[in-house]
Amino acid sequence: MTGAKVEQTPGEAVGARGKRAMPGPVDLSPLLQQFPPRLVPPSWPATQESRGQVLARVLAPPFTFGNAQYQDSARRGLTSVLTWLAAKSGDTWQQRWLASGAELAADWRTLPAEHTGWVAGRRKPYTRDKTDECTTGLMLLICADVIRPSTRWLLVTKTPKNLAASLARTRDPLGFAALIEQCGPLRTAATTRNLALARIATIMAAKGGLVRHITVGDCIEMHRIASMTTVGRPFFYQLLRSLGGFPPDAPMTVRMFGGAAGQMTVEQMIDRYGIECRPVRDLLVDYLREFLVASDYSTVLTLSYVLGKMFWRDLELHHPGIDSLHLAPEVAAAWKQRLRTKTTRTRTADGGVVETQSQRISATDNLGTVRAFYRDLAEWAHEEPARWAAWVTVCPVRDIDLNFKKINTRRKSRMDQRTRERLPMLPALVAAAEASRAASYERLHTATEVRPGELFTAGGQTLLRPILPTGAGGRIWGQDPDTGKRRDLEAEERRAFWAWAAVEVLRLTGIRIEELTELSHHSLIHYRLPTTRELVPLLQIAPSKTDTERLLVISPELADVLSTIITRIRNPDGSVPLVAAYDYGERTWNPPMPLLFQRRVGLENRSVGKASVARCLDQALADTGLTDASGAPLRFTPHDFRRVFITDAIMHGMPPHIAQLVAGHRDINTTMGYKAVYPEEVINGHRAFITRRRSLRPSEEYRTPTDSEWQEFLGHFERRRVALGDCGRSYATPCIHEHSCLRCPLLRPSSQQRSRIEAIRDNLNDRITEAVREGWTGEVDGLKVSLAGAEQKLDQLDQMARRKHTVGLGIPAFRDVAGRTSSPTTPLDPTRKTAFDTPPAADNRAGGRCTSTEQSRS
User: Fold this and answer.
1) Given this model, what pLDDT does residue 189 score?
2) pTM exceeds 0.85, yes or no
C-alpha cells in the first residue's frame, strides 16, 4: 500500500525520533459546557448614564478619598477619561471603551493623556502625572461598574493596580472581608493570598456584580485565560468555594480544572507518536477502537504504546517509507533485536552523557502483543473481509520468540530474590518509620512553642526557628545553625506520618497500592459472631484489579494504625472529609469519598496518591541506610510489601488457599508465585526424613493413646519450667544443649527472672575480666558465649516490656481444646469450647508447640 503523511493538527507536535510530544493546554470545554460562565450584556444601567450622572455618582462616597489633594487628582483623571471616551462612537460608555482600542494599545494611558492635551489646545506631550491621573480615573469607572474591560486585558495590563483593594472599598466590602477571614487560619504567603484576591477582583470587574455573584463557570473561564496569558494559579477557586455559594455538583478540587489530564481518544493515543503512514495509522485506530467496549482504558493505552511506538513508529524511524505490515526477514529480525535492547542515558558530573544497554524485561510481552495484533487481523478478516483482509499477512513474531516459560521463571527468580532480601529488613524499616514519625512530630511541636530566632532541640537535632519576613506565610521552618539550610518542618512531619501509615497498612494487610489509596471510612465494618455475639472488626477492600471485593479481619495492631489516621484527618465534628480522588489508571475523577489517605492543602482536602506514597517510602528508606545485596540503597515498592506479606503468612502456617482469599487472587498459582521459593533440597530432605521416620517407627505408635499416656503428654509441657523461664523443646525430645539454658534459643525467659539473669550477666563479666587477667584464654571464649546468651535473653525481655498495650485474644490452654481422638468436631457445636470461652489470662504456652508435636507423631 502507498504511504501517506499524517497531517498534524495545531498543538499536536511530535517529539524528536518519535518520542511523545509534550501536552498542550488542557481542554476545559466539557467543564465550561456543564458550568457556563456569565456573559457580559451589551448594556446595563450604570453604563447608560450620562456624563453628569457618572461624575455625580463617582465623585461621591464611597468612591471619594480622604486626602483632598489625591481626590483632586482623581477628579482630573476621571474627567480626562470621560472626555476621551465621549469622543468615541457608541451609545454607552462600554461601547465607547471597546471602540477606543485601549485593550489593543501597548499603553492605554497614552490615549486619554494625548487626547485631552490636544483638546485643550496645549500641544504638549503627556506627562507621568497625567497618566497616573488617568489610571485613577479608569479605576473609579471600573469600580462604579461604568465599564467592564475584558478578563484577558485585566490580566496582562500593568494598570490599574490594586484592583482588589479598590473593589473591596467601593463595591463589596463584606464579600472581601469574608474572603480575608477564610485566609486567616491558612499558612499561605501574602503573595499567594493577594494573587487570589486579584483574580476574584478581575472577575468582578469583567463580569460585574459582587463576590457572591461569581459562578463556577466564571472561575473556570478565569483559570483558562490565566493559564494562556500569565500564571494559572487556581487558589482563588478554593477561597470562593469555601464561602459555600457554589452548587453541590461544583468541582471539589481545583485540579479538576485541568491539573490532571482526562482520557484521550484512540486517535489521540496513536497521533502522539507521529506515525507518517496514514493507512497504518487508521488501521491502528480502528484496531484499538475494537477494544474500547470490552477493555479498560489503561489496557487500550498500553496497546497504543506497544503498537504505535514500540512497533510501527520504530519501523518508520529505521526504515523510512515503509507502508506494509509484511516485513522482510532482515527487517523483522532487526526490529526484534531493538525491542529486546533497552538504552539508558545517564548524565555524568562533567555534563556528558553515557549510554548503557540492557535487556528489556517487557520485550516478550510486547512481542506477544504484536503477534496477537496480526492474529486478530487474520481472524477478523473472515467476518469482515472488506475491512481487514487487505492487512492479513505473515506474522513476524514466531512461537520460538515467545518463550514465556523462561521469562516467567526468570521473573519468579528476581521477585523471590527481592522478597528474600526485604523480608529480614522489614522490622528495621518499621522501626525507622516509627522513629521518624515521632522525631518529626516532636520537632514540629517544639518549634511551634519557641519564638523566632531561638534555638531548640527536639527529635535528636538542634535547630533554629528562623525570623521570616512579613508576608512569608505562617509555615513552621527550622534552620540548621551550622549550614543555614532551612527545612519545612510541617512537610517533614507530613511525609514521615504518611510513610509510617503506608508501611503499617501495607505490611499488615498485603493489599495493593490502588486498594490502599482507595481505603475510606466506609471500609471499616464489623461482623457479629452468631455463637458468641462478639463483634469482629473487618476491613472491606474495594474491587481493584480483579473487580472482586474482599474482607480482611482487622488485627489490634492495624486497628491502632487506622484509628491514628482517622484522628488526624477528621473534622472537628468527628466526620471524615469527602475527597474526590483521581484515578490515574482510567484518568477519571472518582466520586467524593471519605478517604483515609488524604491531606489538607490550603482550603481543600486532597487524596494521597500512589506517587506520594512511593516518595514517602523512598524517604523513609533513605533514613534507614539499608542496602541490598549489591550495596545500593534498598528500595521498597508498595508491591514488595504484598509479596513479603504472602511469603511470611504461608511460611508461618497459613494455608495457601486462605492466603489466596486474603490476597484477592483468582488463581492459587498466582498466590504461590508471590511466595518466595527457598532451597528445594531443604524441602526434599525434610520430606525424606519424615518418610524414613515413619518407616522405622513401630505401627503400634499410630493408635489412640491411653489415659495415662495422654496425661503424660499434657504434663510434658508443665514439666518444662526451668529457673530462668520455660523450655520450648518438642515432646519426647532430649535436651541437646547439655542443659545450658542460658545459651539455648528455645529458652523463653520469664520477666520475673530478670534480676537473676542480670546477676548472671554481671557475674559473667567479672569472670571474663578474671580470666583475661589470669591468662585463661580458653575460658574466655566459653564465657563470652554465655554472656551473649544472657544479653539476648535480656533483649527479649526488653522487647516484651516495650509492648505498652496488652490485648487479650482469649486463646485457650492446650488441655482445653486438644482432642482425645482423631474424630472431627462439628464447627458449630454449641457445647464445644472455643477460643472466646477462655479468659485472656489462660496459659497458652502449650499451644505454640502443638504443630511441631503433631508433626513429630505423623
Assistant:
1) 73
2) no
